[in-house]
Specification:
The protein is mainly β. The chain has two helices and 32 strands. The strands form eleven sheets. A four-stranded antiparallel sheet has the order 1-2-4-5, with no helix packed on it. Strands 7-8-10-11 form a four-stranded antiparallel sheet, with no helix packed on it. The longest helix has 22 residues.
Length: 366
């Protein structure tokens, strides 16, 4: 009877062991983690139930808690699921004059992020690299540098002259946006563009024009012929007509005391209404009739207020500066803040600054 009882006990123990062994499966080597690596080298092909592996952060990442996984019946389980290694912060990548930057990789200025810099219109990249990467030891490369594009000097055409130019010495390089206007002397007229502009890519918008002699076509006389032509140089260029000016006007003394059209070389004065300025950023401006149109073009531009305030930042400008449509301005955010749009430049438009500056707290700042 005793032997039979012992037999039952042995069978029960064997059944328990087999069941436990079947329930406690081994684990294969844990999968590779992008931000963490095992503290000790793992050479085993399998790991028993209950095995615990501790991890450390890979270079560029930090942790605030122990990171462990445990084999549980053939599956690796994270003992602290909400505790992971996080990327080291590199801080703000740095602003560049005449350029803006954009975050093209990553969610913030942390390890693995990349920002690329783009030069403003009319500028070119001088630095070898136009990007910075957030690495374990901080930002790579130096802050990229941009320089304004330049156009080669222009020569005065034969029998012509430079009516208006941005440079006193025409043998100097011209900057993006500079305009040169040509005129002809005596009985010569322009062939080609009378105005050329230094474009944003550093090339002239058109070739330098030529001055060709003005000739008049003799009238056809029915049943007759022309025996001679007297004073052939008396051909006159067509003048400049009166033009309305949006957001400005030509005062009465110019409109009525000096009738239109204006002839070559004659001038008009015009002024802009409140909130608008001429291209010279003054209320009043003078234009000259050249080659049948006014130079500069009588036009009034909307102004933008650079003293306008916004939260946690300021415009980089002196009080005497004036800004009109097409002008750009840079701004700086206070310490602990950065631009919400990842750029530090705004443009003056008919509707004001665009985009309007907005500074937000840096990640981690309360």
């Amino acid at each position: 009877m005793a032997f039979r009882f012992l037999g039952y006990v042995v069978l029960v123990l064997l059944w328990v062991c087999v069941t436990a062994a079947a329930a406690e499966k081994e684990c294969e080597p844990p999968p590779r983690r992008d931000r963490e690596q095992p503290i000790e080298e793992l050479n085993e092909e399998s790991f028993g139930h209950g095995t615990t592996i501790s991890y450390k952060c890979r270079p560029g990442y930090v942790k605030a808690w122990l990171i462990k996984v445990q084999c549980n019946d053939g599956t690796w389980e994270h003992l602290y699921p909400k505790k992971n290694c996080t990327g080291i912060s590199c801080g703000h990548p740095g602003d560049s004059d005449y350029a803006t930057f954009e975050l093209v990789r990553g969610d913030g200025f942390t390890f693995g992020a990349r920002v690329t810099y783009t030069c403003n219109e009319g500028y070119k990249m001088l630095s070898q690299y136009d990007y910075r990467d957030c690495r374990a030891n901080g930002w790579s490369n130096e802050v990229p540098h941009c320089e304004i594009n330049k156009c080669f000097p222009v020569a005065t055409p034969a029998n012509g002259r430079i009516v208006q130019g941005a440079k006193v010495q025409l043998d100097q390089d011209f900057l993006s946006g500079d305009i040169v206007i040509f005129g002809c002397t005596g009985s010569f007229k322009i062939q080609g563009a009378d105005k050329i502009t230094c474009t944003a890519d550093g090339t002239w918008s058109a070739p330098v024009p030529k001055c060709i002699e003005i000739t008049c076509q003799a009238d056809y006389i029915e049943h007759g012929t022309i025996l001679s032509v007297k004073n052939p140089a008396a051909c006159k260029r067509r003048g400049c007509e009166y033009i309305p000016i949006e957001n400005g006007r030509i005062p009465h003394n110019s409109e009525w005391n000096q009738p239109f059209p204006k002839w070559e070389g004659q001038t008009i004065d015009f002024y802009c209404y409140r909130g608008f300025l001429a291209a010279n950023k003054q209320t009043w401006h003078r234009a000259t009739c050249i080659n049948s149109h006014y130079v500069p073009e009588p036009k009034c531009f909307k102004t933008c207020d650079h003293s306008q305030r916004f939260h946690y930042g300021h415009f980089n400008s002196n009080y005497w500066n004036k800004y009109i449509e097409g002008d750009n301005i840079t701004f700086t955010c206070n310490e602990g803040y950065h631009p919400a749009e990842q750029q530090t430049t705004s443009s003056c438009t008919k509707n004001g600054w665009s985009p309007f500056p907005r500074c937000i707290p840096r990640k981690g700042k309360l």
